Amino acid sequence: MFLYLLGYAFATNGYLFILMGIDKKKAQQHKWRIPDKRLLLLGMVGGGLGGLIGMYVFRHKTREVKFKLVYSLGTALMASVFLYFLYLN
Q1: Number of domains in the chain
Q2: Is this prediction's pTM over 0.90?
């Protein structure tokens, strides 16, 4: 079970990191953008750390408090799930 969770975390964080880069590039080109709801939802379901790293690597959405908050909460949630499976299960 723990390995599935680890794989899920890597996939979700990697996907959100890539989406942050794509969204930044599209914003610079004044083209189609990835909806904020999608970016925020991925941050809450396990991709928070990838979102936070993507924010600072790509310098994208760093001024928006809701992204910092949601990605931080998503990271804390995923960390607590990992700790649960490591120590209580």
Answers
A1: 1
A2: yes
